[in-house]
Amino acid sequence: MINPFQAGPKVKIPVLTYHAINVLQNNYAGNDHLALASDLETICELGLRIIPLNRVVDWHQGLLEDGEVSRSVAISFDDGSWFDFYDLEHPTCGMQRSMFNILKDFNTRSATSRQAHATSFVISSPQARFSLDQSGLIGKDWWGDQWWLEAVSAGLLDVECHSWDHVHPDLDHVAQQEQVKGDFSQIKSFKDAEIQFNRAGEYIGEVLAGRRPSLFAYPWGSASDYVVTEYLPENRSRHQYRAAFTVDPRAVAKTDNRWLLPRFVCGRDWIAPQGLRNLLNGICNARVL
Ligand SMILES: [Zn+2]
Questions:
Q1: Residues lining ligand 1 (ion), CB within 5 A?
Q2: How far apart are the CA of 227 and the centre of ligand 1, in A?
């Protein structure tokens, strides 16, 4: 029998997620770019470090000691449009600094021990991104993959996988056999999973000059039991992922299933700087006996 007061995990790492296409207004609550810029400062003020998401997974898998990652935070972006990398003129909100450039700006004025890093989970299929650009953005071809290699080469933005097509309801055809859209937990056959995970990783690897993604973020954060208990654990040499992320609003703990690592989402789990401050203080200052 384990005594919870003696055996609790000491270190937990919050992963914060942003969506760069969330640009509705030029204020914190209505713009994930402005939220990210503010949150980097908050994280710094709290004396926390930002570490690459891959290091969170290294720690989770026993490759790093608790002491190497204590009081750390990781950052991820979902969907991977051009708003992640290029400054763009938004049709109603004007020029938007890209998430990449916000990281770069922060790093330019921060000490070397306080450098920011993030991981962009991108939709793999070029056809899906082209269609989503038409239906969800303004049809200016702002969902291309021209920036992936440059982002990774710069060393402050990793590119990882957010499925083949997001089984997005705006697409005419999705890689789900019954054409059930808008729910990634409907990926529950080998045939569908092969496209959403393996084919998706293969394409990203081609664009990244051979470096296949090793992390996956489920669209809308959900996955079927088949994917979590069979496809991912049993086909590792095929798909080459070593962890996958949901949007369960908790910090990553050593006890989590590697195929169900949690993440917090900006705009859902906190909507103001003070909300993030409370959230991070609750996790990173917590002392488990
Ligand atoms: Zn998404």
A1: 78-79, 219
A2: 17
Residue 289, domain member (yes or no) = no
pLDDT digits (tens, 9 = 90+) for 211-229: 999 999 999 999 999 999 9
Cα distance between residue 161 and residue 205, in whole Å: 10
Ligand 1 centroid to Cα of residue 109, in Å, is 31
> What is the distance in A from the centroid of ligand 1 to the CA of 235?
23
Count of structural domains, the chain: 1
What residue numbers bound the domain in which 215 lies? 4-284
Q: What is the CATH number of the domain that holds 112?
A: 3.20.20.370
Assess contact for 201 and 212: CB atoms under 8 A: yes
219 CA from centroid of ligand 1 (Å): 5
Separation of 6 CA from ligand 1 center, angstroms? Answer: 38
Say if 94 falls within a structural domain.
yes
Q: How far apart are CA 181 and CA 86, in angstroms?
A: 29
Give distance in angstroms: CA of 220 to centre of ligand 1: 6
CA of 131 to the centre of ligand 1 (A): 15
Q: How many residues does the chain have?
A: 289
Q: Which residues have C-beta within 8 Å of that of residue 286, sequence separation ≥ 6?
A: 12
Q: Which residues pair with 118 in a beta bridge?
A: 157
Question: Is residue 289 very low, low, confident or very high in pLDDT (cuts 50, 70, 90)?
Answer: very low
208 falls within a domain = yes
